[in-house]
Amino acid sequence: MNQPVAHLGVIFPGNNESVVWRHPATRSFLELDTYLDFARTAERGGLDFLFLAERLGIRGAAGRVHEHLAAGRVDNLTVLAALARATTHLGLVATLNTTFNDALTLARQLATLDQLSAGRAAWNIVTTETVGSNFSAGNYLAHDERYTRAGEVVDLVRQLWRAAPEAAVRHEGRFQSYAGSPGLGRSRQGEPVLVQAGASADGRAFAARYADVVFTNAGGDIERARAFRADLRRLAGQAGRDPARVLVLPEFGFVVGDTAAEAVEQAAYLTDLKVSPLFARAWLEDMWRRPYPDFDIDGPLPAEEPDYAGGLPADDRFAVRAATTHQQRVTAYRDLAEQQGFTVRQLIAHLKRDSLFAGTPEAIADEIERWVTTGASDGFILSPPVIVDSLTRFVDSVVPRLRARGLLRETYAGSTLRDHLGLPGPTAGTPAD
What we know:
Blueprint: E1 7-11, H1 32-44, E2 49-52, E3 60-61, E4 64-65, H2 76-86, E5 91-97, H3 103-116, E6 121-126, H4 143-162, E7 169-172, E8 177-180, E9 193-196, H5 201-210, E10 213-216, H6 222-238, E11 247-256, H7 260-274, H8 277-288, H9 326-340, H10 344-354, E12 356-359, H11 361-373, E13 379-383, H12 389-397, H13 399-404, H14 417-421
Parallel strand pairs: 1-2, 1-13, 2-5, 5-6, 6-9, 9-10, 10-11, 11-12, 11-13
Antiparallel strand pairs: 3-4, 7-8
């Protein structure tokens, strides 16, 4: 079998609430050995790629830093360069933003990683939220403007990648100007794979135009995932692309247990660790857009409605727009809490558990098979909750079952990330479309 039915990547946790700070087995994301062990485990399992996220600022509210967001995280390009030497097949996905970086810097950084890894690099394209104060004044952009700039930057990056090293490249655009020779050599795979995540209309249109891989969060809802993939493929076709070459990989948070009861118990333990009082208060204030310094998070949701119009935070100009409206989400949360008698903290823990796939190795394999064989996804980006143990458990117990069913390759069929994903390489000298 040259190509697997299911494409599996893995994200190194640490950028959002997926890090369980209090779990005794969680290892440091500041030590290189953690990344090395994580990457080698992923490669041992035959996964397509390892994904590192990026956060340029520390989110907070009312002067309080959100404890569930990683502070002082190491630079992902530096880590991935080290992992390029420590692995031989695993794809390496770097997250770099288009709002605060220029095209030439991005082109050179990513082309360098692609050369160092012998054609295994990918760029996760983000427009970046909530970090404008970390940069010079005047760089704030509205949501639509961020995607307009991103399109211009990506077009120029691809033009630089596809030009001969000595070619004269000129670009005069709204956000970027460039005149010079790129001086970049092409890697074994031609150029890095493009990855993108975005649920808004702008995000989906951008992904349909540019992305080889789309990272999405379906929250465990297979029907929602199936509709998203179908819509994205429709948009890709309208953009003149082959829809089959746009891979949709939802996030897959998981807990593997020897028995179903053990998996459920572990999932409850993990989500309880995540939903601390500080986390619950931050979630409530973010959803209700009101300060609640003394609110009892072990009581019911606030009786008043969120401040939908006037409670936008100062940096909401960077907020990511979801497919559903804020009011729709709050209404659904309130209905669920009333039906189940949930406190604020119990509601959040339930939402976290509801998005986890918890079960035996056989049940986890069943779920992956169900999604990829019914058109809900082309695979998943695994999100292991505990570094590195959760990934080790998946590789040792779930991967053999997926291989036995013909869902996952036995060995790597090629050497580049494009080989792993079944994507053709771009032709040298072709213009960015």
